[in-house]
Design brief:
With about 300 residues, the chain is mainly α. Helix content is about 60%, strand content about 5%. It has helices spanning about 20-25, 60-85, 90-120, 125-135, 145-165, 175-190, 195-205, 210-240, 245-260, 265-275, and strands at about 5, 35-40, 40-45, 300-305. Helix 2 runs antiparallel to helix 3, helix 2 (about 60-85) runs antiparallel to helix 8 (about 210-240) and helix 3 crosses helix 7. InterPro entries: UCP07580.
């Protein structure tokens, strides 16, 4: 059966633990009474997703397949990073970290299954996973806070994409219904937990100067987002080449999809760029209303747990 477990990690206005008081003094913008919910969803493993599952369009399909193929390795990195800090944060933050980790484990499981369907259609996606590993190895030999800064950058990118997926139906219009619901479920939880990594960052760097915190966060955000986005384009082009497109045509078609119509990258650019501003916090964009969109019709596409 479907599982939806409310984790008791609500923020409270009255905080009585010294560690928590120290934390809340660091300007977290996470809404009071916000909670993370673990939705242990397993999608229909018997459903045969079409090769071009997004509207019969190989370009849209290639983009989302490129993103999906990158997720298991990236989410494992996020989980490992958060575990580095779990014994150093206040209890309420540790509880949110646990819920975040469980959500990410579930995301990994479902995208591994989704990626297997992509491979079953004859696509080679192994190099995508290897490319993610190479990108994440940039932190080797550096302080663990750098791992956290990378996690912040990628979680922010994911949260902004998720905001657009849920707020504008054009982005998944015409997609295979089960595949579309995987993305909507994932997007919902990305929005829901978008502030936790930044709150851990604020706590972990509380002894840093504001300038050092801003400089490290901003430089890594620019570097890692550029690398991740560039790699997703490269890998989506590679998938289109596997469909018989020339490299030139694949690149032109993909750029038109991302920047013109429907143009998600163009529309989300300024929202992403807020991570470069002093005083940034993911919850300064309060889009909790989008979380409720997951209910009712979505449940019809979910199958009982294996």
């Amino acid at each position: 059966m479907n599982k939806q477990t409310s984790i008791d990690v609500k923020r409270t206005a009255a905080l009585d633990k010294p560690a928590t008081q120290a934390f809340t003094a660091i300007d977290s913008a996470t809404p009071a009474e916000h909670e993370l919910i673990v939705r242990d969803q397993r999608f229909d493993r018997n459903h045969r997703t079409p090769r071009w599952w997004h509207s019969g369009d190989p370009v849209a399909t290639a983009w989302y397949n490129s993103v999906s193929a990158s997720l298991p390795r990236g989410e494992a990195f996020f989980i490992d990073t958060m575990r580095m800090f779990r014994d150093t944060v206040p209890a309420e933050i540790a509880a949110e970290m646990k819920a975040f980790t469980t959500q990410e484990i579930n995301h990994t499981r479902e995208h591994v299954a989704f990626n297997r369907l992509v491979s079953d259609h004859g696509y080679n996606v192994e190099s995508i996973d290897q490319g993610i590993q190479s990108m994440l190895e940039l932190t080797e030999g550096r302080p663990k806070e750098f791992n956290l800064a990378i996690t912040i950058a990628l979680e922010h990118f994911a949260a902004i994409i998720s905001h657009h997926l849920l707020s504008d139906p054009r982005y998944l219009e015409g997609a295979d219904p089960v595949a579309a619901d995987i993305w909507r479920w994932h997007a919902t939880e990305e929005i829901e937990h978008k502030g936790i990594t930044y709150d851990v960052w604020l706590h972990a760097t509380k002894d840093w100067s504001r300038w050092k915190r801003y400089r490290v966060k901003t430089l890594i955000a620019m570097l890692i987002t550029r690398k991740y986005f560039g790699n997703r384009i490269r890998d989506a082009i590679g998938l289109l080449e596997q469909d018989g497109y020339s490299r030139r045509k694949a690149k032109w078609k993909l750029y038109a999809f991302l920047w013109w119509k429907p143009g998600m990258m163009r529309r989300m650019f300024f929202e992403w760029a807020k991570i470069l501003m002093p005083g940034f916090h993911p919850w300064k964009l309060d889009d909790r209303a989008l979380i409720g969109k997951l209910d009712s019709p979505y449940a019809d596409a979910v199958m009982p747990a294996e």
